[in-house]
Amino acid sequence: MNLNQEQLIIFKKVMETGSFSAAARALGKVPSAVSMSIANLEIDLNLQLFERIGREPVPTSHAKILYEKAEQLLIEMNQWKQLARSLSTGLESELNIVVVSELLHTRWTDYIAALEAQFPTVQINIFTAPQEDAQKMLINGTAQFALMFEREQLESNEQFIELKQQALIPVAAKSYALAQFTQQSFEQILQSRQIVVASRDRNIRPELLFSKNYWRTDNHHSACAMILQNLGWGVLPVEMLDENPFLKKQLKVLNFSDFTPKFEYFVDLVWNRESLQGTAARFLIDYVKKLRKNTV
Questions:
Q1: Of 28, 49, 104, 288, which sits 20 to 30 A from 296 (CA to CA)?
Q2: SS3 of 51, please?
Q3: In this structure, what is the dihedral angle of CA atoms 213, 154, 107, 103, given to the nearest 10 degrees?
Q4: Per-residue CA distances from 11 to 8, 26, 61, 275 (Å)
Q5: Mean pLDDT taken over the chain
Q6: Are 214 and 197 in contact (CB under 8 A)?
Q7: Cα–Cα nearest to 230, from 165, 280, 177
Q8: Which element (helix H / strand E) includes 94?
Q9: What is the spatial distance between Cα 224 and Cα 213, in angstroms, rounded to a whole number?
């Protein structure tokens, strides 16, 4: 059996697009090359993968079963290649790490200090971004790691280690109208302007958006400044208030009377498992795994 990665990629794309011609366009190939690759794959596997009746190929039951495993097999093949390449390249010259805006007040510098102690010559570049932007930086290779909140749905190429829990709290300036009440009702929250930390491409995590009227920013420092200016209420990290006595005096923690929002999140160290990992990147992963093992 002479199965190769390109055949798997073509097979997967045909299954996803529903035709040889659509798969060819997506992959930048001519339809005849796609058709020939599928025919050769069928010969190699000794299985008919598509019924060629009508204008479009119809997947057989065998094709549907193999498709479920194709993506994972492609990931494992890429991982094997990346591992071999990283073993040959050794230590990387720099490492890009993006920290989600709301997590800047966590002890993320502990991990950087461990990297510096082990690899003082590696240049460490730290970026900050909203959650959705951080995830895109991992996908496009702008960053090798992201310190970010748990996600309800992972991308197929994401891998992560759970680090800790992080608390966010709803706050308003003490002179803000909403803060004059002992408890805030759902209707009051709905009608009061919310200052939201969100992605630059206008995506907002629905679990953090409560008001009909909202303003947006891409970092919690500017969100805090607007909240202090009585421009709205918002959700800030607990550590931000703990580290700044001034904020504690100026802000009031809101008490929602009609519902309990989810403001406790797990924080993950995330990386793209298909990307090249050098010695420093592998060290960071192993270091965090050992820390987690010792604390669990």
A1: 104
A2: strand
A3: -10
A4: 5, 12, 14, 23
A5: 85
A6: no
A7: 177
A8: strand 94-100
A9: 17
